[in-house]
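Our collaborator T.R. sent over the components below with a one-line note: 'Predict the complex.' Nothing else. No constraints on interfaces, no templates requested, no preferences about which chain binds where. So this is a plain run: every listed entity goes in together, and whatever single assembly comes back becomes the starting point for the next discussion.
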Amino acid sequence: MLYINCPHCGLRSQNEFAYGGDATVKRPELNKEISDQEWDNFVYLRKSPRGKHLELWHHISGCRQWIKVERDTSTHEIFKTYKANEAIE
Amino acid sequence: MQKYSVFSLIKNAFSDHQNWEVAWKDPTPKKEYDVIIIGGGGHGLATAYYLAKEHNITNVAIIEKGWIGGGNVGRNTTIIRSNYMHDENGLFSEFGMDLWRKMSQDLNYNVMFSPRGIINLAHSDAQMNAYSRRGNSMRLNGIDAVLLNREEVQKLIPMADFSDNVRFPIFGGLMQPSAGTARHDAVAWGYARQADSMGVDIIQNCEVTGFDVSNGKILGVRTSKGDIKAKKVGLCVAGSTNILAEMLNMTLPIETHLLQACVSEPIKPLLDHVVTFGAGHFYCSQSDKGEMVMGGDLDGYNSYSQRGNLPTLQHVLTEGIAMFPFLSKLKMLRTWGGIMDMSMDGSPIIDKTHINGLYLNCGWCYGGFKATPASGWTFAHTIAQDRVHDLNAGYSLNRFSNGNLIDEKGLGTKTWIS
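Returned assembly:
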């Protein structure tokens, strides 16, 4: 069982959350000419690292906020959690 | 190579089975090979075997970080099927079914192929319509498919929940009678033994630490046992694909996720088929030892851990009990996990890359075991001829950027829910 520290609600079990994937993927800007390669990068290509991974989770059975979680994909250690709009250093 | 037969078995019984030849050698790597296959799992071993057998390329090494057959080929639930709707998947898998049927004779190794049939259960009228469409697509590709109504399903699997007022009543199902199971370890060992006998070097406990690439051409690999030169290199590393891709500065349409499986304590013969629950992810078959072999959902977040998490197992087995209530009385014998190379459309990639002499075989999601022979056969062709075969032409790496996806389930890029 993962325990995720929701920045809004505190420590909760993984059962309350839904996964939302890689949080480092950036949607191309609106109203800008986009190449097929840029769309490919955004929609399909993923680093999927072994180690630290910044990812989105949805606290769907809690406060219903989207949050960002920095987790190790090999050990499942959670280093830090952020609000969705929080700056990440 | 010593041939396995009833006569060699009797002969060796007289010497208390002390004089069997080793099934494969343990060579030290040579300085250079024509082809290096990275990954000594089912696909890598099959690729080396077909390179030697079909293309007469025997100066080949298989490099494996751990021991052969210790990854997903030893961790799956042994299901073999070709019940796909899309042409690319259906024709590829059905070609594989033919190789499965001949495999034990071909490899002189009993892989215990058991074409017991797979039944996908349907729990609504809409699902029956979808299965009818899939079944018709299968038949157009020459694959056997039978649409079963509720009574026909009940005759085949009376132990399923056919009572009134269940949450997911069984409306019927789609059956592929020629589908089945095989002994997964035997597949790895059979391919390894034959490949070894034709001159392939199987190098275990040898981790790839880097690649030697110059002017867009592959020159060799760096390993924990030293640098090895190669004219061509093929990647067959399933869940570790992204780790090697990073060494090559490649980003792939793949995420690595964890899938669990489990077996119950052994019970008397009860279930004759492979059965899948249609209202979620759960599948079940009974092994020759009598264990119920079960699996279902991914753990649901990127993972390289090769061990599972209990909430997912509980969720999967809840579905199992909804389908087969008797499962709740059984004790769990063993659970385990393997890491899956989940592609963004649920279909695999067998293709050349932008690096000359580097070939890619990945993206099997959780359908890799059944594809072992067809994957090895087509990947060997792709490497030997430096061009894809018609059978794997659809499994291209650039289909994501040019829009020719093969999205069998229509789930899109959320690999963790597929």
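Summary for T.R.: Chain A has a mean pLDDT of 94.
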